[in-house]
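Deliverable D5.2: sample structural annotation.
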Amino acid sequence: MLDIRRVREAADEVRKGLETKGADADSVDRVLELDAERRGLLTQVEGLKNERNTVSRQIGVLKKKGEDTAAVQMSMRELGQQIAALDEQVRAADRGLKDLLLTLPNVPHASVPVGQDESANRLVRQHGEPGSFAFEPRGHVEIGEALGILDLARATRMAAPGFPLLVGHGARLERALINFMLDIHVNEHGYTEVWPPAVCNTAAMTGTGQLPKMTEDMYHIPSDDLWMVPTAEVPVTNIYREEILDKPLPIRLTAYTACYRREAGAAGKDTRGIIRVHQFDKVEMVKFVEPATSYDELETLVVDAEDVLQRLGLVYRVLELCTGDISFAAAKCYDIELWAPGQNGWLEVASCSNFEDFQARRAGIRYRDGGGKVRFVHTLNGTGMALPSLVVALLENGQQADGSVVLPDALVPYMGGVSKLEPPAADG
């Protein structure tokens, strides 16, 4: 949530930033109107309360003198009713202002490239070059089904399209990747592992910015007012909701969760196979940092994510997203994409974002600075990694002419010594 003082004092800057994100900049004017209305009401009610306090003291003096105070007390009751009515108007203005601020996206950082869509994203760096094959590379669905590790038909029959079923070494590969990534982040990158709930309440989803903006993309359990987590970012960030942190910053946390997203409007885009699915596994990294260090921490967050891909020997590139392509809550974001030869293209596998104090204000996450002043932390999150694109890239880049798939050396210990996935032997 944007700081109302920032909107008030730098309205033109905020309006311009929201415009570059494709947001309704006119909302800034409505925020200023509600803010002015609220402040006017506060001035009125504070004036009446001061008057009540003054007259109350006078009543005490008059009573000591034995004078009749009935008329004055009657006027005080009427004044009390006016104060109560104004207090309710202030509360209503507070609710209206908060509700409106919750609909405004974060303002992009000044360094973010300005653009309307992904075509304006900036290539930061690329690691490796796509390899060549002596045969026509196949897609992950054909590879996975031939290996007997991917069964989309049965998954659809038991659930619906978009809920994959991994079998045998496919399931083992998923588990191996999760453990591999968590071990790196915990043992080498300095993150603390947590195992959060798979559901969050409305307050938590609002705190990280998923609600109210992305209601249609989430799986909701109305009877309990709980939401299936779309990413571990939500529960992990909300660990410290409505708290003043009592430990040194930065705090670095990592978690694995299954993730659930309806992705409304995504029909027809990457729906074949496991590239775009409604349930998927992901390892997430979350940081709570001091404002002065948050952009340095963003760069190290990206490096931590890249380290996973480098150890797996995958070709990837890092993109700095433009204003029109970054998320609702992000002030700055990098995407990491993997090369997938079977798709003849790049697949997003990770996003690393700095939200500045946007989430912290919504969720009430604060800390004490060196001078003891209570301030909002800056929050960051990064994917470390999303399993669907990672599995696709491993299958398609490791495929061999005989239908087998060679796995990266780094995964062999996590696969129980299996270094190659091979099609099942033919009967007979």
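Annotation notes: The CA atoms of residues 135 and 401 lie 7 Å apart. The chain is about 40% helix and 20% strand.
The annotation will be released with the project's public dataset once the embargo ends.
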